[in-house]
Write a structure and sequence with these properties.
Blueprint: H1 13-19, H2 22-25, H3 29-32, E1 37-38, E2 41-42, H4 53-69, H5 73-82, E3 87-92, H6 98-109, E4 113-117, H7 131-141, E5 144-149, H8 154-167, E6 175-180, H9 186-199, H10 213-220, E7 232-236, H11 243-252, E8 259-263, H12 274-282, E9 286-290, E10 296-297, E11 300-301, H13 302-305, E12 308-311, H14 323-328, H15 339-343, E13 351-352, H16 376-394, H17 398-408
Parallel strand pairs: 3-4, 3-5, 5-6, 7-8, 7-12, 8-9, 12-13
Antiparallel strand pairs: 1-2, 10-11
Helix pairs in contact: 4-16, 4-17, 5-17, 6-16, 9-11, 9-16
This protein binds phosphoric acid mono(formamide)ester.
Phosphoric acid mono(formamide)ester (CP) binds near residues 97, 188 and 354.
Length: about 425
């Protein structure tokens, strides 16, 4: 009889592929971060842990400038010529709508030419070529590789491959992780943070020297401050397998006095995982884990005390053969938002979702879409701006954008309202 012990299990090709980088992969993230930079500049984008609060501010500022410049022909022409000597490969072997298209649009804004491999059956991997040979080939033709894979550590391994190539004097290009298995989705977290940064400026086009939206909100919610610090963030749904949750929660740990409330069934697959819990508590984040928005924390129901809510889908694509039957036994109704719950939320609290939402499960029913707090479509558009800012930063042209912006605009800065930005002098 063949033995079924784990020691006798034949490793999958995926596992074998990553084996050569195993010892580097197993190090704590902190040790890896310097290797992902070149001369202090971000080179490969693999983990959200690479972003400090200062870096997030800089990125938001670049994104704001790109979106403002994109509003007129002169700005568009300037941006189009910035990186028109660069080519990007979008290697997306896992399905994607937003990340793929917003990266492509971001490249187009900056004049970067794109190509794509989305279906590995159309590549020579079907002839036995390894992923690493494929990646090295892409680096021969392109200046940047943006990649999404179901394999958790593939993007990270590719960054090490590129570093090794550089060290041996070979051509090497930056790698951007556009989603890696159930592990990380750092650029999604960047757009989530950018959306929160803009929202928590609490600006309004009708703000005047005598009355602002922020002052009115402060009357409703004494103690309210601008910015991401000192806020209560709710995460609801598939916390255990949500790579966007992992990446965003890690970024929120950059901000003082935040509380993260995780709303998920008490189930080993769906609830918060030990490694993320440990990582967040080590950084001094206050964590609360509940099974329903109705539970009370600090004397108040969870739904009433959130400053922002991040909904997620139950990620069926990660189910193993037992999960479907197992989840059918669970009460997942608490993973759904309703108009009644939204009515009890703070008047300014944004509702985010990385999307896609699941129309069959219904974690956010469409009737919520018209609520001014429903931020998910704007959030997705913010992805284009922040990804353009990220590409500009990786290629080191963010200061050129800043200089051009300040030459063209006399004053600016209103995070909440595009129209409130001062129009360019020549319009
Ligand atoms: N949020 C997100 O990653 O969406 P896509 O899977 O459509 O890229």
């Amino acid at each position: 009889m063949p033995s079924n012990s784990p020691a006798d299990r034949v490793p999958t090709q995926d596992e074998l592929d990553l084996l050569i980088y195993q010892s580097r992969i197993e190090r704590p993230v902190k040790m890896k971060i310097p290797e992902l930079c070149r001369e202090e500049r971000l080179r490969h984008i693999i983990f959200s842990g690479q972003f400090t609060a200062d870096r997030l501010e800089d990125l938001a500022s670049t994104a704001d400038k790109i979106r403002a410049l994109s509003r007129n022909r002169e700005g568009q022409d300037f941006l189009l010529h910035l990186l028109n000597n660069k080519r990007a490969m979008l290697y997306f072997t896992q399905p994607s709508t937003r990340t793929f298209l917003s990266f492509m649009a971001a490249c187009q804004i900056l004049g970067i030419t794109c190509n794509e491999v989305r279906d590995p059956t159309t590549s020579s991997e079907t002839k036995g070529e390894t992923r690493f040979d494929s990646i090295r080939m892409f680096s021969s033709y392109f200046d940047l590789i943006i990649m999404r894979s179901k394999l958790a550590r593939l993007a990270e391994s590719c960054a090490y491959l590129m570093n090794d190539l550089a060290e041996s004097g070979n051509r090497s290009v930056p790698i951007i992780n556009a989603g890696s298995g159930a592990d990380e989705h750092p650029t999604q977290a960047l757009l989530d943070i950018y959306t929160l940064q803009r929202t928590f400026q609490f600006s309004h086009p009708k703000d005047s020297p005598v009355s602002t939206r922020f002052e009115k909100l402060q009357n409703e919610s004494p103690g309210l401050v601008k910015g991401l610090a000192h806020k209560v963030y709710g995460f609801c749904g598939d916390i255990g397998r949500g790579r966007t949750v992992r990446s965003l929660a890690s970024l929120l740990a950059n901000y003082k006095g935040v509380t993260l409330i995780f709303v998920a069934p008490n189930d080993p697959t769906l609830a918060l995982k030990d490694d993320l819990r440990r990582r967040l508590t080590d950084r001094g984040v206050r964590l609360v884990e509940v099974e329903s928005f109705e539970e009370h924390v600090d004397g108040k129901s969870v739904i009433e005390q959130l400053d922002a809510l991040y909904m997620t889908r139950i990620q069926k694509e990660h189910n193993n053969s037992d999960d479907e039957a197992h989840f059918a036994q669970l009460d997942l109704s608490h993973c759904k938002l309703t108009t009644r719950l939204v009515a009890r939320m703070k008047t300014y609290a944004p509702i985010l979702h990385p999307f896609p939402r699941d129309q069959h499960f219904g974690e956010i029913p469409p009737e919520i879409d018209d609520d001014p707090r429903a931020m998910y479509f704007r959030q997705a558009r913010n992805g284009m701006w922040v990804r353009a800012a990220l590409l500009a930063t990786v290629f080191g042209v963010e200061h050129q954008i800043s200089r051009f912006f300040h030459d063209e605009y006399s004053e600016w800065h209103n995070y909440n309202d595009d129209q409130a930005l001062t129009p360019p002098k020549h319009v």
